[in-house]
Amino acid sequence: EEPGDHALDSGKPNSSSDLPLESLKTVLTEDSAAGKVKRKRAQTPLEKYYLKYLCVTDLSTQSWCEQQMVYGRELPQLQAPETVVLLNTGKSIHLARELEVHDVVRVHTTSREDSWAIKILNLLSVIPVLQAGGCVRELPVFGVIEDVFLTGIIDELCYSATGELELRELKTRGQPFMPSGAQKKRDYFQVCLYKYIFDAMVQGKLKPDVITSHIQLRPEQPLGSQIREHAQKVGFMVTCFADLLELMYLNLTLSDIPGIDCLKIEYSHQESNTLLGTEVVRFEEETVLEKAQYYLAYWKGQREVQGVEIEEAWKCQSCSYSEICDWRKKRAEGIMPLTVVKHS
Ligand code: SF4
């Protein structure tokens, strides 16, 4: 195997839920001593769905319609079959592009720390490529915004002819034309979040204990034999999870890899594989953080879920959940909350 190999977890499925957090009760309970009824704190959506972290795509999907994102999580079986086909084809195209630059190997995992070790090894294996001015694909990124841990995968990072570090996001489309402004806005937000997280990583803001405390991982946990073997093949001698975290921190901060200079999104038509167009995205940190704060407030239980505003009701026409959507029903009946604050 070459250092560019990417490892895949062949153990248990790895999702942002990992192991369940202790379930919190939201019911009213009887205080036996005093005979009084006490109200327990309501679960936040993060707790309700047993999530210790979110994916960048959770937030970008949320920016399209938050209610739709929630239905997608709770009722995935109601998704229109054509949407599922489109998503699966998109995944295959991404995998094919990944295989152009490195092989994918299966590594057996025996613990949650092992599963995270794979992500970290995949990141560690591309740092030398970037340092040498090469191009990398499917780069894992992790970071914290508003005290919520976020993960994502950058499609491609390359240096341009002028030496700028360029992020390229590939979006495949079922229709042979460029997306609407609303769809572009969702994609812009996604790549801006990637830049924010990646830049923080190379600036040394992702300290080892940030990962273990947010995701509740054990630094002293010994790594499984297959993980240690894979680490050795890609040039790292590690025994426990903390070794890898330390290596990641040092490699990122001492690597001299710059922050991302340029954000590009390439839209292509899935069926004909033709490029439809490229968008260059302007990064405005304040706006990105403001938006993220708004979307994360839902996850932290600071506000109720919201659907689309009346001026974006056209989104409901192609929504798989339009028949059952409570938000849409309330809007039709005119019983919307008095103050709906929607981030533009
Ligand atoms: Fe959102 Fe409209 Fe779909 Fe409801 S019907 S989930 S408001 S897009």
Structure at a glance:
By secondary structure, the protein is α/β, with parallel strands linked by helices. It is 42% helix and 19% strand.
CATH class: Alpha Beta
Strand content: 15-25%
Low-confidence stretches: 17-30
Number of distinct beta strands? 10
The first-to-last residue Cα distance is 47 Å
Ligands bound here?
iron/sulfur cluster
Q: Assign an overall shape.
A: globular
Helix residue percentage? 40-55%
Enter the CATH topology name.
Answer: Lambda Exonuclease, Chain A
For the record, the count of structural domains works out to 1
Order of helices and strands: EEEHEHHHEHEEEHHHHEEHHH
The CATH architecture assignment turns out to be Alpha-Beta Complex
Largest sheet: 6 strands, mixed
Quaternary form: single chain
The number of helical elements comes to: 12
